[in-house]
Every structure is written in C-alpha cells, then in structure tokens.
Write a structure and sequence with these properties.
alpha/beta, Rossmann fold, 2 domains, 9-stranded mixed β-sheet, 5-stranded parallel β-sheet, 10 helices, 32% helix
Length: 351
C-alpha cells in the first residue's frame, strides 16, 4: 500500500493535532519536521518518534521522502513556506487562516497552479463531519430545490485564546499577528462550510459588525486588540445570502445552530434534520442521520482527507480556491466593520 511522506513546518500546538492524526494512519507518515525554534522541533520529533529534524526549510524540502508538507506556522508566516514548498514540487496543506491579506492567498493559489501541485487549506475543517457531507450532497443534488440562504451561529461562553485558553499563545489577541479575533480564528470554518452549502458562489457584498469587551481583560502588559464577537451578512452572485454570528466570548449557551433554506426543503443541523411543508402548512421533520453531525470516523479528518487525495492524485476536499474566497470575505468583513458600511466585491470569478 502506498504511503505519503509528510514534512511538518512549524511544530506548535496545531502541528501536534496533525501529528496525532498521522500517528493513527497507515496512509500518511510524518518523516521530518522543521521549526525556526530548533528546540521545539527536536522535542516534537522525540514526542512523536519522528526520524528527522531538518536544520532549515530547504533541508526539509530537499528530502526525497517528503512528498507533501503541512504548514503549521502562525498566520503571518503562512505564505513564505507555502510558496517555497510549492516551488520545490511539494503538495501543501496550509493551516487556517489561509492568509491575512487576500493578495497573499491569491499568490499561493497561483503558485500551486503554476507548479501543478495540490494546495489545500484547513479552513475547510468543518466539511469532514457526516452532517456537513450529507447536507452538501442534498444541496448540490437539487433535493432542497434552490438553496438561497444559510445562517450559522456559534457562541462560546469564555473561549478567548491567550486569555481564557491556550494562555501561552498570546498572539491570538494581537491584531498585527492574528489579523483579527473570533471571525478570522473560528469564523473561517463556518464561512467556508456556508459557501460550500450554497454551491461556492462568488460573494458580491459583505456587511459586518464587531464587538470587543466581554469578560475579564487580558493581564498587563498584554492588550487585546481583536474582537470577541462578529456578525457578518453576505450576498452572492447566484442570488443566495448568508448570515454568520460568531463569538469567542459571550453570555449564552445552547444557541449554536446552522440552518439551510431551499425552495423545496430546509435543513437544521445538530441533529441534521430535513424540514418540508406538509398538509395544512404544517412542517414535516425527518432526522437524516443517527450519528452526531460532527462524526467523521468513517471519513477521516482534514489531515487524513488531504493524505488520501494526494495519494489518489485528486483535488483535496479543502481546495485553496475555496479558501481564497473565504479570505476575501473576511478581509471585506473587517473593512466593513471599520467603516460601518457594506463592502462591494468584484463580481468576476476566480473559480
């Protein structure tokens, strides 16, 4: 059985998540790691029994047993190693957010296409659950009629990275390093799956509002410069629309929900339920799957999906072109929040 050799670039917390997935896989194997902090790379290699700690990025990319890489660096450092790896002929899985600037995301997409290599992005992590996959099959097959609207709401009670959790990762609350807060950190997942369910249209307008100031402030000298909460409304070139509510910190529980509206039927997640209009205008509800919506045990997570796609010489389920559209939406959302005005995006499509 063919096995994909992977190099890990950056060995922080998220790299360990990918390595845990690979440790359970017979299809992919981590064969080398590199980090700008050599001690961290050495410790990670020891913890996971990895055979090689690269001295430099070029050292890792020169290895013939490295077929693909996973870029696990902080957001501001995604583009350089991704471009270098693609130019070296490696396939790439890049962590989210894809880029803080859509022009950087565009450069990475173009590099992948120029080098005829696959580039996938972890902003599509929410696609792997059985609920999302069944919903996408229904939406794309026409079983829901024309899908015209998606709404997603996610509220954490207190979950600010660098303050309430992951206290060692204080860069999350620094806009210059993270690009933003709840929206760019966890909103990327929801925007990706929302656009996926709508058929990956081109977004044409974005209106956003953000709020910061929930919970105990960061301990000095740390200063939080990113939002706790964001609301985004967008419209698309196929006539569809979406509304996202996303919060790192809130005083709410039990209100997380995603709904999909089609002209023939609708979907409500957790548990995935199909809703149609019955006799006398009464709704008919049909639960579609017995397992939890986020169960991906029969399918693999974002790491394993990337490995399987590369081995099959197929476009990964998390393509960079889709991640580029998410980057454009988030960039427009922050520009809208800064001005209080909707942002209109070019209608020409890069898909």
């Amino acid at each position: 059985m063919a096995q994909l050799g992977l190099g890990i670039i950056g060995t922080g917390r998220i790299a360990r998540s990918h390595l845990r997935s690979l440790a359970q896989s017979t299809e992919g194997k981590a064969v080398a790691v590199f980090d700008v902090i050599p001690e961290r790379a050495t410790q990670t290699a020891a913890d996971f029994g990895l055979p090689y700690v690269a001295r430099t990025l070029e050292d890792l990319l020169e290895r013939r047993d490295v077929d693909a890489v996973i870029v696990c660096t902080p957001p501001t450092a995604h583009m350089a190693p991704t471009l270098t790896a693609l130019d070296a002929g490696k396939h790439v899985l890049c962590e989210k957010p894809f880029a803080l600037d859509p022009t950087e995301a565009e450069r990475m997409v173009q590099a992948a296409e120029r080098n005829q290599r696959y580039l996938a992005v972890c902003s599509a992590r929410d696609r792997v659950g059985v609920g999302a996959r069944v919903a996408h099959q229904l939406a794309s097959s026409g079983a829901l009629g024309k899908v015209y609207h998606v709404r997603s709401s996610t509220f954490r009670v207190r979950g600010r990275p660098g303050i309430d959790m992951f206290q060692d990762a204080t860069w999350f609350i620094d806009k210059s390093k993270a690009g933003g807060g709840a929206l760019i950190d966890i909103g990327v997942y929801r925007i990706d799956v929302m656009l996926w369910l709508l058929g990956n249209p081109r977004v044409t307008s974005v209106l956003c509002s953000t709020f910061q100031g929930i919970g105990k402030p960061a301990e000095p000298p740390l200063v939080q410069t990113v939002e706790d909460h964001a609301v985004v409304m967008f419209t698309c070139d196929n006539g569809s629309s979406g509304v996202l509510e996303i919060s790192w910190a809130s005083n709410m529980n039990g209100a997380n929900q995603t709904i999909v509206l089609g002209t023939e039927a609708g979907l409500r997640f957790d548990p995935l339920t199909k809703i149609t209009a019955g006799p006398n205008r009464l709704p008919i509800e049909e639960r579609l799957i017995a397992r939890p919506d986020n169960d991906h045990s029969d399918f693999g997570d974002v790491t394993i999906q990337f490995v399987r796609a590369i081995l099959a010489d197929q476009q990964p389920q998390t393509p960079a072109r889709d991640a580029l559209e998410v980057a454009r939406v988030i960039d427009a959302a922050y520009r809208s929040a800064a001005t209080g005005q909707a942002v209109t995006l070019p209608s020409s499509s890069g898909h």
